Amino acid sequence: MSNDLNFSRRSLVKRIALLAGTASIPGLIASVPAHAKAKVSQANAKYQSTPNGDKKCSNCLQFVPGKSANENGTCKIVEGTISPNGYCVLWVAKQ
Ligand code: SF4
Prior knowledge:
The protein is mainly alpha-helical. The chain contains two helices and two strands. It folds into two domains: 1-37; 39-95, High-Potential Iron-Sulfur Protein, Chain A (Irregular), CATH 4.10.490. 28% of the residues lie in helices and 4% in strands. The chain has a two-stranded antiparallel ribbon. The radius of gyration is 22 Å and the shape is globular. It starts with a helix and ends in a 20-residue tail after the last strand. Iron/sulfur cluster binds at residues 45, 47, 57, 60, 62-63, 75, 77-78, 82, 86-88, 90-91.
């Protein structure tokens, strides 16, 4: 009984080591379709509906504008409705 249990553990460890050697995490992440990637919650991104100095969603690379410049839009990486005057810690300057 003990030998069977040891054999199973050994076998499991070998399989995990084999998987780790053949599949890289970045490679796995890159292979996930864009529509399947989850966005970050507003709470985790520390989103706020007001700017942080000159930094605001409307001048962030990730912002997807609404129908007009003053309307709410969305974000490529943060969930929910996003104000053009909002801000979060994931802000990146638009080029
Ligand atoms: S990443 Fe943050 S700052 Fe940039 S658009 Fe999304 S919510 Fe706004």
